[in-house]
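Hi everyone, sorry if this is the wrong subforum. Our group has a chain we'd like a structural model of before ordering constructs, and none of us has done structure prediction before. Sequence below.
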Amino acid sequence: MMQKIICFLLLNCSFVQAQNLNYYFGNMHAHTSYSDGNKDSVTSGMTTPLQGFNYAKQSTQIDFYGISEHNHYSAGMPSPIYYKKGLADANTATIDGQFVAMYGMEWGVISSGGHMLVYGFDSLCGWDFGPQEIYVPEADYSKLYSVINRKSNTFAYLAHPQNDDYNNLFTQSFNAVADQAIVGMAMRSGPAFSTNNNYSNPTTSSYLTRYNDALKRGYHVGPGIDHDTHNSVFGRQTAARLVVLAPLLNRLEIYNAFRKRRFYASDDWNVEVNFIIQNQPMGSSITNAGNPTLSVNINDPDLESTTSVTVFSGVAGSGSAPTQLTSVNNSNSFNYTHTANSNAEYYYYLYIVQADGDKIWTAPIWYTRNDNTNILAPVASFIDTINVCSNNPIVFEDNSLNSPNTWWWSAPGAYPNNSSLQHPTFDFPNAGTYQVALVVSNQAGSDTVVKNITVQASPDVNIQAIDSICKGASATLLAVGANTYIWSNNVNNASTMVSPQVTTNYTVTGFQNACYDTATIAVKVYQALTTPIVSTNVDTLFSNYNNGNQWFYYFNAIAGATSDQYLPTVTGIYQVQVTDSLGCKSEFSLPAGVTLGTDEKDAQAVYKFNIYPNPSNGVIYVSSEVVRFNVNVEVLTMTGYLVHRQEIIECNFARPIEINLSHLSEGVYLIKFQTDIGVFESKVQID
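Answer:
Right subforum, don't worry. Here is the predicted structure as tokens:
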């Protein structure tokens, strides 16, 4: 991979001392089966973003790769769950310094809308899925811009833009909110449905007119190359690349480079374009005294020659399209000074043609001439009165003077150990004293400050506990490793007793010397067995469980009665309880009444209830071969819940009684008839 350092003007200038930029090549527009991509999944076997990232990682000249799924259901996004999966896949695939995986969304609809790539969000923005996402109504681009601008390091990029897209962005007056959100747009797009995997299917599309429309309206946008991949050829259908200028290959720095418009569109997969004004790279907005001098240097590692370099220029917000300012043939480098009018914001971008016909378009540099401007060299400073703890990310805040426009932090021993963000986040894994350096720059020069940062040791908090209980039991959780604690259940002690009814996570935060650490334990709750069911056969009681039974007589355990059946010896109420191999106990069964000593005729009559039809559609009829009075009928689920109760005043063979169970769901139920001499049980099936 080509990642050569840019040396502005090929001399040891102050900006280079502050921050070295590298070239990173990639693509930010592709799809998987999580929306409408991987259309060849039957043959490729690829469906997930992780598979796409891993494939792109092995493609030539791919340092970063973006997958931007459609954000709405009708375009293939099943639910926000899949967007979360894509974000997780991007994290898995990213290897800092080697490959950056980006996961975002292609927002909007083509008809009466326009597609916009959005990166930097951890939730879907849209209108399909309700409270599970950030709600932005369909085609409400104004709302989308404001949502993007609320989150740092988030940006929008216009995909295959048409003249009337984005609520007529290209024909209406300048929108400052949109300008803050949008960083660029496609100069070329596709071939979207190519199945080519040997880099030989270039696109011929061009959105140069839309690019010029945006610039003349006053928008600060850079050009990109989009593959818009819909088949499993991630990075390989074409050699064209979107090229980003960043000091480091990690997601924060790549996103920051997009936010600063430091990128360009290239048909060639490794050409390096160095375009600066006053030591500031493409994408910069500069205000300074005097005329701007443009410096250009082009390097192609494949030694391909440059046929022409054309500089286009215009006045931002003028409404007039850019025009050719100058052109140089057969040269890879030149300088050019433009006579600029005062207090007008000019923009300058390059159009480069190589000998093999490949074309490159750069992001502009915006320059405002103000001869009253007296730019002072910055004075580096950052806030060091902060409490820094090991393994706790901490934001370092720049408070340098004289308006620097570039920052370069060095923090050996931290992760990451460098950053070009103005306010970076560092994480020191170990306690100790570390030197943190900040170099700041602007057109007038650079300055450096180095400060010693003391990192205190964070506590190492752990939880000691039995992590599984039976439902209804309690567990004591004990935190160790810190001085004071607070639990997620608002207990402020080292220990807490919990009695969850379902498996529950408990988190404790331990504090020591203003530092903290957290630990989490999942207390698993084993559900009690379903309530056993007792049935009767002649004079014997039966449990529906084969093992773990204990029979009770009026809630008193019967010694030795642990079989799945029991022969009562006295009249009374009997129940059974079941214990599983983990020691968890079920509820007691419903009481079974046993009356001993009845005559044989009456005893047999208990079992002569007729139930029909069975199975039924919900209405059954009951009769008895002997007359039975005041029969209580109960219908229970097979887990013991009462779902129907009815009293029968009189029941016999000649006068069957209707029982309407049509309000019950389909399934098998237990029906009980309680008579003056005992209980009859049977099963009924509702279809």
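For your construct planning: The longest strand covers residues 445-456. DSSP finds ten helices and 49 strands in the chain.
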